[in-house]
Amino acid sequence: MLQVFREVSSDLNRFGARVSSEIHDIGLECEDNPPKHEPFDAWGNRVDLLVTSEAWKRQKAIAAEEGMVSIPYENKHGPWSRVHHVAKSMLYNPSSGLYSCPLAMTDGALQFFRRSPMTSTNPAFSKTFSHLMSRDPTQFWTSGQWMTERRGGSDVADGTETVAVPQPDGTFKLYGYKWFSSATDSDMTLGLARIIDADGGSVAGSKGVSMFYLEVKKPDGSLNGIEIQKLKNKLGTRQLPTAELLLDGTDAILASDPGRGVPAITPMLTITRLHNALASAAMMRKILLQARDYATKRHAFGKNIIDHPLHVQTLSRMEVDTRAAQLFVLDAARLLGLDETGEATEEESLLLRILTPLLKLYTAKMSISTVSEGLEAFGGQGYIEDTGLPGMLRDAQVLCIWEGTTNILSLDVLRSVLKSSGETLQVFFRATDTRLEEAAKSNVPAIKDACGRLQHSGRELKGFLDRSTIEGPAFMELASRDLAYSMSRLYMGSLLVEHAIWAEATPEDAVVAKRWCEQDLCPVVTNHGHGHYSPDGQAADRTLVMDGYPEKLA
To answer: What is the C-alpha separation between 554 and 548, in angstroms, rounded?
Structure first.
């Protein structure tokens, strides 16, 4: 273990220096030179040329050289390889010029191919797997994920309209419209479509959706039956080419069992949601480091602002949230590393299942508020584009939308409980209880106080869940968002107190744990007490929202 720590630390220190001396400036160039779409050439021929900057291309080469996707698949350090990868990605992400997005989808595709029994038998898949995890910039491929269509994002079961027409050689041709296709310049992609049967029909709902593999370009360099309709004009992530695509006879290979496309997404979602969370934590840490440094240099009202207690208090609260987010991300990486190397217990796999949506939804919300507060710490300069700061806030906003909004993920938490017959919930409480029982033995007052608050909130949460069994599904759906927040705060608190009793912990770690636990750790119980989930509460919500809206339009 010590040798692993030394090797990983050495790589992170070296890479951190490269980020600050080289990669950061390249990332800014990506921001200054967003992608462009040239639909026609000078003679009116449709070419759909996607022009990306040299900085964007350089990021791809750097990602390959540094193993920004391959580390967990090379598996040099066993289950700790994923922790290494996530820690390195947290260093890279805020300075990547959003190249971290195609890397996240590439990681998800690798996870799909690694778990698929078809990879070893299909030459196209085994070739692609090698390209996706290559460290050779000339051989490295990235992947897209083309799932979203015009009817919706998260509801792929009913929203998928793209059809797949079987061909005599066993392949398919895809016809449809992909409405939100990120990493449009990727080398290959995975996408969903409905297989057309001999009668020209298809199966409705999730059972009719299958997963397909396609390469974006043909061997001659032309697009594979793809027309770029437009590049999306987005609030943020402008460095990243995201397009509306028309698939018109796109050559594709079936990559899942027929009708099993939606379940095939699950392992990919675990990966991309973890990437979303590490991006959240990394952006929080970056803006906080910048704000702290600025505070030592900005002189106002007779002294540097680092010497104004109110300003330091604001930064301190940001620090507490940032440390909690980082611990949550790294713990999820630990669990994923165990799971993908086959070393996880059944309990650890179940814990990963329920933590993944919690991790993604809560860190995304934290990131937006922390980055916004960070811009405010710079005063007017935080609003000036020349500083590079406003782009961070624009980019952070996507984190609570991509790979599932907060409400969608809250419902996913409920789904994990129901599908496991409550086992994921039991495993969740055993994990938090075990940590808290151990930490409660500490003689440090701050840690004992934090443990007491967490244990009390845990009992309240269990009591609420026990009482909710007599309520209908609509009750739990309405409470799901507050439930997800409560579970997130409880779990993050348990990680903080566990970290605070570590042999190499500092006194500041105990302060962080205590301050985290001074908030409302169980809002679902608080809001239930206020009647938010009752019929009267629902009626009040509806009245407030629709007040003043013309009845004939409702």
So the answer is: 11
**Would you say 211 and 76 are in contact if contact means Cβ atoms under 8 Å apart?**
no
Written as one string, the DSSP assignment of 168-191 is TTS-EEEEEEEEEEE-TT-SEEEE
Return the pLDDT at 526.
Answer: 98
Give pLDDT, residue 33: 96
| DSSP per-residue codes, 7-68 | HHHHHHHHHHHHIIIIIHHHHHHHHHS--EEEEE-TTS-EEEEEE--HHHHHHHHHHHHHTT
- At 229, give phi and psi (nearest 5°): -80, -40
Distance CA 149, CA 177 (A): 6
Q: How large is the C-alpha radius of gyration of the chain?
A: 24
Cα atoms found within 13 Å of the Cα of residue 492, Cβ hemisphere only: 32
* 24 token code pair: 């950061």
Instruction: Name the phi and psi angles at 182, rounded to 5.
Output: -75, 160
Check: CB of residue 480 under 8 Å from CB of residue 472: no
pTM over 0.90: yes
Q: Which residues contact 88 (CB under 8 A, 6 or more apart)?
A: 11, 12, 15, 66, 68, 71
Instruction: Provide the residue type at 209 as one letter.
Output: V
Q: Are 30 and 98 in contact (CB under 8 A)?
A: yes
Residues of the chain with pLDDT under 70: 152-154, 553-554
**3-state class of 491 per DSSP?**
helix
Q: Over the range 123-159, which residues count as b (16 or more CB within 10 Å of their CB) and which as e?
A: ebbeebbebbbbbeeeebbbbbbbbbbeeebbebbeb
CB-CB contact of 192 with 207 (8 Å): no
User: CA-to-CA distance for 67 and 85, rounded, in angstroms?
Assistant: 8
**Secondary structure letter of residue 152 according to DSSP:** B
- Residue 75 backbone zone (phi > 0: left; psi -120 to 50: alpha; other: beta): left
Q: Which residue has the tokens 């039991």?
A: 426
| Predicted pLDDT at 554 | 61
Q: Is 253 helix (H, G, I), strand (E, B) or coil?
A: strand
